[in-house]
Every structure is written in structure tokens, then in C-alpha cells.
Amino acid sequence: MYPHKTSLFIATVAIMLIAAMTAFGCAGPVGDEPAPEEEEETRRGGTIVIGYSEEPPTLDAHGTTAAATVSVLDRIGDPVLERDPETGDFIAHIAEEWDISEDGKTLTLWLRDDVTFHSGTELNAQTLKESWERILEPGHEVALGRMGPLGDLVVEDDYVLRIEMEESFAPLMNWVSWRSWAQPVDPDLVREYGDDYGRNPGSIGPYRFDEWLTGQEISLVRNEDYDWAPEFYDNRGPAYPDALRLRYIMEDATRVAALETGEIHITSLPSTEVERFIDDPDFEIFSYPRGGVSMHVLFNHEREPMDDLRVRQALSYAIDKSAIIDVAADGRAEEAHGPLPPTMWGYWDGVEDISYDHDLERAGALLDDAGWTLDEGESVRTRDGEPLEITLYLTSFDHWVLTAEMLQAQWRELGVEVIIENYEWGTVLEYLADGRHHTALMGYSTSNDPDWLYRVFHSSQAGGAGINRHHIRNDELDNLVERQRYTMDPDERLQYAGEAQRFAVEQAVQAPIYILTEYVAVNRKVEDFAIDYRGNWLLHDMWLNE
User: Fold this and answer.
1) What is the CATH number of the domain that holds 423?
2) N or C: where does the chain have the smaller number of CB atoms within 10 Å of the terminal CB?
3) Residue pLDDT, tens place only, 212-263
4) Is residue 272 part of a domain?
5) Would 492 be classed as within a structural domain?
6) Closest Cα to residue 446, out of 170, 110, 54?
């Protein structure tokens, strides 16, 4: 049973992404024919080590938007609905059938009757209801902002759950298919650990959480009871490896060295390290356009002088994106122009015509008009005796640091003094929620629907309630992002999403900089690693060939 016509839009995204993929080892679909039983036995065993540059702040699916959390949750959980890895169409998984009403307010799910949580508790309509009701509890506002206007969860039968929304919600099917954020959380573990659940997570996926050595690694072990892998995998039962070790090595050079020595088998490569691996026979290189939101500058609209449009526009005009790309991404990125990437359905290409070109003279004129003048012989602008001094918050990812240093130099040329504040990732998110920053660097890899605009721009998501870290509160923008969210007509969604993007650019809500090409290096001892149309890693056929 295929759902509302929304799935057709996702297929459009898939086509765009597949066309944009530039792969040295481009991931294809997982094979169709199951491996012989004896071959499966030879594949079993071993530990695959994956290197990451960022450690999760928590493993609570309802407690964060961090991409580092996704990298773990995607291994320990499963979504209720899956997405075809080539087309993006919704396909049956934990829900064998589904039905969505024409008005988008009601989604009914018919669940499998043979799925269990890692604790042994059965997944049924009641336990799934308990899992998702947790999103309504205080402290989970970030998750609620993603889920939308949830009204009620109704158990119709042991394995039939009905989701009722207070309003039409266009991204509802998309939300249910999130492996990380919408995965069922183990209700027994939630009761057992309470606030510490984020350090002791459990779900229904192919790996169980084992241990977290803070600052070092997270270990996951095979779920021997797993027997419900999605239909696009050859392996429908338990994972082949005994375990996964997820090692956290923030410094790119150290992580790449660990890859070369065989300490880790898989890692994302910084752009500056790609060339040395392309012709190395010991590794396969995968590449794909980043599916999330570009590297950009957050402007805090509640702090002077960022509350002045002229200042935000001046800083935007002073950014030389091409120069930053050459230094921070070794030229392996595309200039960004708006709040959504061109690979996402809902992207309005008009942003390319109205975005801010590098124009230092125009930037200076805007600051002059705002009263920030540069006196002869001085290097920093002042107004009423106060220097134009702003903070730039970030965390220590190598290309982020390089980007920040380039921005600092470019804005200094304009007469703006920039103080770079470098913090651990969790601290950065806390400070941005509090609104301590003037500006901050940010990029997201977990968005795949234009409803992202609601989550980062709507007034209800500001002040720590969500991820509106711009702290912008604007009635006109609120109206536009609400309309794209609640209309079920695809053309109307495109219209409102486009108008919201126009507003964001014209009002310099943020300053987009670049869209990275992502690179993944895989040791050739690891067989059958694959990537889907969105850049998600497909690991369930993966095995270690020693």
C-alpha cells in the first residue's frame, strides 16, 4: 500500500541526488540475490572499527539534533517505514502496511508481530505509542519540533497504531521513516535509566549498545535476535560482524593516520586528504554531495549589532566564499546561496540570483550607513566610541577552524574585530540556545525536507525550545514556514518554501558559505559497504574479509 502523493516528491529528490553524485567508488544498490548459507558463515565474525570526528552529546533519540548521535542511533535502531535506497520511495518495514488520510492528519500503521526490543520487550502498538509519547514530555522539545503537531496516538489493535495530528502535516511520512529520530526507544530501558537513558540506549536494530568510553569510543555488539532487516539487503538476519567500534578522533590528521595503519577501517575524509587515497589500492573511496544544510554563519538577531539588517548584509557582502572554499575545503565544495541545499526537494533556485556576492565596497557603505565608521589610521570601526567587535562561536573540526579564521581575516578587512570562541560541541549548542553568540558557524547533515525551514526559523523554535539558533522572531517568516508545513498541495509547499528562502536571503537571516562534497574511505578488507541516495551508509550487508 503506497501512501499519499508526497512520496513522489521524495523520488524527485532521489533523482536529483543520483544525478549529482560524483563517485570514485559510487555506492550502488545492495544486491538482490541472497548469499549461499556457507558463504554467510564465512562472513560472520570480527569487529569493524569506524572513525568519527565528533562524539555524540547523547544517545537519546529525543534529546538532540546532533549528526554524531545519528551515526550511533542508525546502528541500534530501525525506522517504522523504510526508504528505497535508489528512489527514496517509502517501503514497508516494521510497518507492513500503512494508510494516510487525504488531509494528512491521520496515519495508520499495521506493525509486524515478531519484533522485539533489545531488552526482550515486544514491539507492538502499545510499546510504540509509549515510545513516541515520550516526545511530548518536557525536555524533548527538539524532537517535537521535528515530529510536528501531534494530537494523539491511538492503539486500534495489538499491532495497529493510529497517529492523529492536530493539523495537516506534509512531512509526516518523512518523519516516520527516520531511522534515528523516529526509531522506537526501549520503554523498559527508559524506565530503568530515566534521565540517564541517553547513556544507555536501546531500540530494535541490528546492534545493541555495549559501552561508552567518554572521549574515546562507543562499542556496539551484534543483536542475535535481529531477523527483520529491510528488503533491499541480501542479509535479512543478524549482522555479520560481531561488533562495531565507533572511535572518536577529532583531529583529521590523527584519524587519517589511524586509517592508514589499519586501526580503523572506515572514516569520512577531509577534503584536503582525498588526493592521497584516490589511487591507493588498499582503499575504496565513495563520494556524494552533502545532503544536509550547508556551512553557514548564524546571525543572532537578538544581540546588537546583529539585530541591524545593514550589519548582517555588510558581513554577508564581505565574505569571499571562493577563497574560503580553496583554503577550508581544498576547492572540493560548491558555493551556497540560501538556507536549503540544491539537492533537497523544495530548494528555490532564485536564491542564486539574489545572494550576496563578494563586494567589500558595498559592505563598507552599509556599515557607514549604520553608523559604524572607520576613522583614518584605525583598523576597527566604531560608533559612539564603541568598537565593532563580535564573537564567532564554533567547535574544533578542522575545516570549521579554517573557515572561521578566513572569516575573521575577511571581516577584519572590513573593519570588524572578530573574537573566535572555540568550545566542545555540546557546549556550543548550549551557548547558542542561550543566545550568547553574535555569530556562529553551523552546518547540518540531518535534514531532508523543506520543513527544515520551520525548525530553524520559526519563533516557537527559538530560545532553546528548538534549533532556531538565529533567535529570529518574525511574523511574516513564521507565516511562510507554517504554510509550507501544513499544506498538502505540493505546488503550494514549493511556493511557500520558496518565499521563505527569499525572505531569509533578503533579510540576511544567515550567511550561507559552502556545500561540501562528502568523501568516505573504506579499507578493502571491508566488503559490501554501500551508500543510499541521501548519503546514508548502508551497513547491514557489510562484512570483514580478513
Assistant:
1) 3.10.105.10
2) C
3) 999 999 999 999 999 999 999 999 999 999 999 999 999 999 999 999 999 9
4) no
5) yes
6) 54
